[in-house]
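U., I forgot to send this yesterday:
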Amino acid sequence: MGMVVWYSLSAKIEISSSSLKALEVISFAERRTRLQVEAMNLESLGVGGKADKARSCSWYDIDFASCGQLRNLELFGAIFKGVCVKEFRSRFPLLESLIFYSCYFGEHIELVSQHLKRFVLGRCKSIKNAIIDTPNLRSFWFDGPTDKCTFCVDAPKLSKTTIITGDDWWPWNYSICNFLANLASSEKVTLYAEYPPVYMCIQLFSSSLLIPEQYTYWRPPLPSVKHLEFEVALDLKEPSCGMATLGDDRGGGLVVFNFCVDRAMF
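Result:
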């Protein structure tokens, strides 16, 4: 059986199938949803919606322990109460792509996965400490403040990293540098900031795009990087943007600036 998309208003969902290969579940219940999936041959499971689509407003208590053939797992709004993510190594040994977005784990998460190649960790605000042991990870995507969570990452094959940050986004912030040091093998790094103070963007246009002098004595946090990209999004419709002097009276809009830093600048 191919992809099945399951929409529900119920606060309790039970799905059982021996032939199901791919499943996406979205609940529109106003309270927490209990979801149980028993599908021994399931290879792809998505719960709560996609990042580029409308998501449900429900939280999910999920039981999918029997889905031992999973290769792709996307969870939005999942609650891992009493569930150890570290057990994914034995429960889901074939897992290659994993997305946690707006999930609850408590303050600590330890992920150990032999075959994982892609990992997304977005807006999981409860996490204070994270250990990631993924020897074959190639792509890591993180959305959240880097100054409120301690990361320890062992991913020697990591090649692409994307970091979306909040107010601590400024590239030479101490927390950013410490965070990046955990991703030393990455060859391509993208730092994305949404609606930062405009004066920071002006600095990026200036020579301060180079590493400031006070940081040149540090050991480079990204010794393997070949391509470092800054993406800055400004909403010109906001008065605080300070760009009204440009004379654009068309109502403004979202503008994305890209800055690429060559390896030679390090």
